[in-house]
Amino acid sequence: MADNNPAPSPEEMLRVIEEQSVATAKMLFPNPVLFYLPWGVAWLLGFTAFFLSYGLGGRPYAPISPMQALAVLMGAQLVAGAVTTFWLVRMNRPVRGDSTARGAMYGYSWFAGMLLVAVLASRITPMLPPAERGLVWAGASMTVVALLYMAGGAIWLSWPMFFVGSWVAGVNALGILLGPGWHALLTAVLVGGGFIAVAAFQRRRA
């Protein structure tokens, strides 16, 4: 009896193997866009609010208090964290073993780092002028961000992620030295805008 289902050609087999490899990679490795776009938008909004509140010459550019700017930043970061966590959980649901544990510990590190920033800043900032209070909150938060992105690069062996963390650290340090207004401007443009640009590049590359 003749076989009505001929064996697939080598080209078809290669195509199937490539498709399965791509699907497996999407399951095992986080989508890099999720680590950049939500946070870039959050920092662009939050630190733009701080910049309008401080100005560069000590005069506000908009009637926004530092506490209102902080509320915008914290709210935007909460949304970004929720979006990233949702997609990470969704992607890692079919995965078991070291990858899941690694992702969970990394997520807990973010929570612990930001919680410690809140405790430290709440203890110190009442003794400082309003502008310096915002600088402590922002500078400490971005320090945690820089270190955890560098750690994430080490965990997933991602040099781009490590270099992004190094970039955040450099911008943060320069902004702290220049003062609240400059820190807000540099962080909004070079970190927030930079993260959005990296997300667009990663999306196009994918």
TrEMBL record:
Source organism, top-level taxon: Bacteria
Descriptive protein name: Transporter
Q: Which UniProt keywords apply?
A: Membrane, Transmembrane, Transmembrane helix
Q: Where are the transmembrane segments?
A: 36-57, 69-89, 104-122, 134-162, 182-201
